[in-house]
């Protein structure tokens, strides 16, 4: 195999932290490589060094003359008003037919290809960026957390693409299911050292654990032997008849060495609220429920029942209404019609996507936890919970304004643990949490005796936790009936067969949506023009709302005034609801376009 890229003796330091310490690794052609390591270990820094954006303090990176790198950009590379097709042609210099052919591999057709690219969701924009990468014909793809905020369907589409990509990949991801599906080798960055393992992530993690246990057993045996030899030496060194034996044993003792076993890095320990008397029967019922907003219904006719003790995973594509359903269940959003009825004695704790962006920035970690703790909770108990989520000593006095996104997410989780909730409603709890914290949360929820209702795009987390699956799709909410594995199988099959595109083209009658009856072509054209006009209007509205939301988010990150932060948060929430409504309407209108618009 030809070598594409090599790092030799790499050393990199930031302040007191050493990220790379005599690091060595070689990337060869036609290998899919998963780069793993804890948050802060230096993975993104290593990628920037490979890309030539940063330099090593010492050591070298050697590049093959044939190396062509494709890098999945996290920033927005699009120009105002340009379509996905315009961008692909501008970025690659390829003709429109070639760009359209490659874009089709990512289901980019019709309005998704020819409409304004900036008005597509994050998942669809990622598809456009991937098509752009492929058009440059790279032999090494570098992807940094490519599944962030992608729904399961788009994750699976990306997996299918990578498995069929006949070149090398270097992928950084916390998503173990994604790495397991796409990478056949693993590169670990721990304490500045790079370790290449010729196998998938799950096999590597098992090897790591087995190697550690083996080293501990070896050390135990060595220590026992050392003690035995030392006892013999102490007893016999002064005796003339046995002194030579003692000297021989001393040489044996000097040759015996223990294996260095690295001390575990600090780990998160999450303890879910303890339920003394788990309840039985229905926890919540939805009766003829319609969810959405005053001028737009997201889903209707919902008949749903969740039992006490269930861990109900809510699934569906982005924009289908998962968060709207959760907000309606916890009564932060009023039903359009029908009712949500909770059982007697339900104490509900919520963890929502927006919570950790709206904390009072002037509070300290300890002040926030004190505000969340039940009456009678001692100072020591609060410190214990803080410590379990890595807020120890001086960290408890940190202001919220200086915490990272991951630290804020952990802080909100700690606040939840200080309650006595028998119902937990969690909206994407894994966002901003590293893989160790997500695993700790999964372990806690498996031991929890209460009810969990949650959304997550993390398949490994969902597979471990969900005891039932509720799907939000096409303005309906239903209990999926089968387990999460069956749901994943169905999504995979749809991606394989292109069934979702076909379903989007068809109306309720099973005929292609938007096709006019024979003899009524003029009426069909009038309806078509009206439909396109409304789509154009919605697209402009989405752009305006998105710009306003981004501006408010920037202002929220900069302000230190608690009252202003709360006002900004409320404005952002209102804009988020309007955006969700507009995007849902846009999706609905796209499904009504004539079949020819989808190629």
Automatic annotation (TrEMBL):
Position of the signal peptide: none
Superkingdom per UniProt: Bacteria
Matching InterPro entries: AAA+_ATPase, ABC_tran_C, ABC_tran_Xtn, ABC_transporter-like_ATP-bd, ABC_transporter-like_CS, ABCF_ATPase, P-loop_NTPase, Val-tRNA_synth_C_sf
Location of the region described as Disordered in the Swiss-Prot/TrEMBL record: 501-528
GO MF, one annotated term: ATP hydrolysis activity
Record's compositionally biased regions (Basic and acidic residues): 517-528
CDD domains: ABCF_EF-3
Classification via PROSITE patterns: ABC_TRANSPORTER_1, ABC_TRANSPORTER_2
Keyword ATP-binding on entry: yes
Residues covered by the ABC transporter domain: 5-216, 284-499
Keywords of this entry: ATP-binding, Coiled coil, Nucleotide-binding
Coiled-coil boundaries: 535-592
Alphabetical list of PANTHER family matching this protein: ABC TRANSPORTER ATP-BINDING SUBUNIT (PTHR42855), DRUG RESISTANCE ABC TRANSPORTER,ATP-BINDING PROTEIN (PTHR42855:SF2)
Record-given protein name: Putative ABC transporter ATP-binding protein YheS
Gene: yheS
């Amino acid at each position: 195999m030809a070598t594409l890229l090599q790092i030799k003796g790499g050393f990199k330091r930031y302040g007191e932290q050493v990220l790379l310490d005599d690091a060595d690794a070689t990337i060869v052609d036609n290998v899919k490589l998963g780069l793993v390591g804890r948050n802060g270990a230096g993975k993104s820094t290593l990628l920037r060094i490979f890309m030539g954006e940063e330099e090593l303090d010492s050591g070298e990176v050697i590049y093959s003359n044939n190396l062509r790198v494709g890098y999945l950009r996290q920033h927005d590379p699009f120009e105002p008003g340009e379509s996905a097709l315009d961008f692909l042609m501008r970025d690659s210099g390829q003709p429109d037919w070639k760009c359209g052919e490659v874009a089709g591999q990512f289901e980019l057709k019709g309005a998704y290809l020819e409409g304004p690219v900036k008005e597509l969701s994050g998942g669809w924009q990622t598809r456009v960026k991937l098509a752009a990468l492929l058009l440059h014909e790279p032999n090494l793809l570098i992807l940094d957390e490519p599944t962030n905020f992608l729904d399961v369907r788009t994750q699976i589409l990306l997996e299918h693409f990578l498995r069929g990509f006949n070149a090398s990949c270097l992928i950084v991801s916390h998503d173990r299911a994604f790495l397991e599906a796409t990478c056949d080798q693993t590169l670990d960055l721990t304490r500045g050292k790079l370790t290449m393992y010729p196998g998938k992530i799950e096999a590597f993690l098992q090897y790591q654990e087995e190697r550690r246990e083996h080293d501990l057993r070896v050390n135990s045996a060595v220590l026992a032997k050392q003690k035995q030899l030392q006892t013999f030496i102490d007893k016999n060194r002064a005796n003339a008849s046995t002194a030579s034996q003692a000297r021989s044993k001393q040489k044996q003792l000097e040759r015996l060495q223990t294996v260095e076993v690295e001390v575990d890095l600090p780990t998160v320990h999450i303890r879910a609220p303890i339920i003394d008397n788990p309840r039985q029967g229905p926890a919540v019922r939805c009766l003829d429920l319609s969810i959405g907003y005053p001028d737009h219904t997201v889903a209707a006719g919902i008949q749903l029942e969740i039992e006490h003790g269930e861990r109900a995973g809510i699934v569906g594509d982005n924009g289908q209404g998962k968060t709207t359903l959760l907000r309606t269940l916890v009564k932060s959003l009023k039903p359009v019609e029908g009712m949500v009825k909770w059982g007697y004695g339900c104490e509900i704790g919520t963890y929502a996507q927006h919570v950790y962006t709206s904390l009072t920035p002037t509070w300290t970690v300890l002040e926030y936890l004190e505000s969340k703790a039940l009456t009678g909770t001692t100072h020591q108990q609060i410190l214990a919970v803080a410590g379990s989520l890595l807020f120890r000593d001086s960290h408890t006095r940190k202001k919220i304004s200086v915490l990272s996104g991951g630290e804020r997410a952990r802080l909100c989780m700690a606040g939840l643990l200080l309650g006595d909730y028998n119902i937990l409603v969690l909206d994407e709890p894994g966002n901003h949490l590293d893989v160790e914290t997500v695993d700790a949360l999964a372990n806690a929820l498996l031991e929890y005796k209460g009810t969990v209702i949650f959304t997550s795009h993390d398949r490994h987390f969902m597979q471990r936790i969900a005891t039932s699956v509720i799907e939000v799709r096409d303005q309906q909410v239903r209990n999926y009936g089968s387990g999460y594995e069956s749901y994943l199988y169905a999504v995979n099959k749809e991606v394989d067969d292109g069934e979702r595109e076909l379903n989007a083209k068809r109306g309720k009658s099973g005929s292609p949506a938007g096709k006019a009856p024979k003899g009524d072509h003029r009426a069909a054209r009038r309806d078509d023009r009206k439909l396109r006009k409304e789509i154009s209007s919605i697209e402009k509205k989405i752009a305006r709302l998105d710009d306003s939301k981004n501006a408010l988010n920037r202002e929220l990150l900069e302000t230190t005034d608690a009252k202003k932060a709360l006002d900004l948060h409320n404005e952002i929430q209102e804009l988020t609801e309007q955006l969700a409504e507009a995007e849902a309407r846009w999706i609905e209108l796209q499904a009504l376009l004539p079949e020819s618009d989808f190629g």
